[in-house]
Amino acid sequence: MIIFKTIPELRHYLSSRKEAGLSVGFVPTMGALHKGHISLIHKSKEDGCFTVCSIFVNPAQFNDPSDFEKYPSTLPEDISLLESAGCDVLFLPSKEEMYPQGMEAAPSYHFGRLEEVLEGAMRPGHFAGVGKVMSLLLRIVEPDALYMGSKDYQQCLVVQDLCRQMGLKDRIRFIACPTSREPDGLAMSSRNLRLSESQRARAGIIYQCLVSLQSKFDSGADFGIVQKECLELLQAKGFETEYVSIADAATLEPMTQFDPNRKTVALIAAKIGAIRLIDNLNLN
Ligand code: AMP
After folding, report:
1. Domain residue spans in the chain?
2. Percentage above 90 pLDDT, the chain
3. Catalytic residue set
4. If pLDDT is split at 50, 70 and 90, which confidence band does 29 have?
5. Alpha-carbon torsion (136, 44, 170, 4), positive or negative
6. Is the pLDDT of residue 156 over 80?
7. Exposure string over 232-252, b if 16+ CB within 10 A, otherwise e
8. Which superfamily does CATH assign the domain made up of 2-177 to?
9. 154: Cβ below 6 Å to ligand 1?
């Protein structure tokens, strides 16, 4: 694996690979890599792509400064995981490399209602920051395929909309990869590293709530009642819940009733101590 820290060197190398006829698969990350991230690398490799991973903890997408400061960094381990997975290139830019004129000067994109609901409501400015960094990364890497995790469901919708706004929708194949989970169902996340042993032991409840929502979906159960059960379960385990939502899978507009005829996703965000976890499950 070759590591690049500057944009011109990366672009020069990638253009030679593209001229050689290779298809470029791109996996953007913020590091502290786990098996979930690596599953995206594997998918890109399985698809026959020359695979580029980026690690950049993007300050523009953190609405909570302490979350940014405490964001875990495990670079030596990340490099060896990427090498074992057969990743071809790691792009490791500094903040100055990505934002030479400051973050404000980077391009701004807006995503309408998509950036106002759920994560957008709880983390003001978050998706504007995702839009900034992803627009820069897509212009730098110019991938043929973009691999992102369904774990961040709303982010997948936002980035697909970004590709459309950038006129790249037909040039980049967007691949939403399934969520990798721990044996108790907890979605793998870099933030899990910050959970204490006791918090970790309770964190599987988020997935249990999602499965319970899924199991009630077809039965026509009252969503309000099922939602209340989830809120109580999460509270009993010491979680402060930000949302338990069932929403239209394309727009994320909240639904108040289960409707088996509409593509629907259940999404949860909850905090245990200072650590905020999110997860989701398709209901049909
Ligand atoms: P992050 O480093 O958290 O920005 O994540 C980088 C990419 O990995 C994003 O596309 C995430 O959705 C994806 N990802 C994070 N956790 C998982 C997981 N448990 N399973 C699959 N993909 C994941």
Report:
1. 2-177, 190-279
2. 90
3. 37
4. very high
5. positive
6. yes
7. ebbeebebebbbbbbbebeeb
8. HUPs (3.40.50.620)
9. no
Amino acid letter, 251: T
Rounded alpha-carbon distances, angstroms, from residue 206 to 2, 113, 180, 213: 38, 25, 14, 11
Output the CA 33–ligand 1 centroid distance in Å: 9
Q: Is 15 annotated as a binding residue?
A: no
Q: Is 49 in the pocket of ligand 1 (CB under 6 A)?
A: no
Question: Which class is domain 190-279?
Answer: alpha beta
Whole-number Å distance between alpha carbons of 258 and 246:
8
* Ligand 1 atom closest to the CA of 147, numbered from 1: 10
Q: Tell whether ligand 1 has an atom less than 6 A from the beta carbon of residue 29.
A: yes
Would the pTM count as exceeding 0.70?
A: yes
CB atoms within 10 A of CB 164: 12
* Residue 220's pLDDT band (cuts 50, 70, 90): confident
More confident residue, 284 or 40: 40
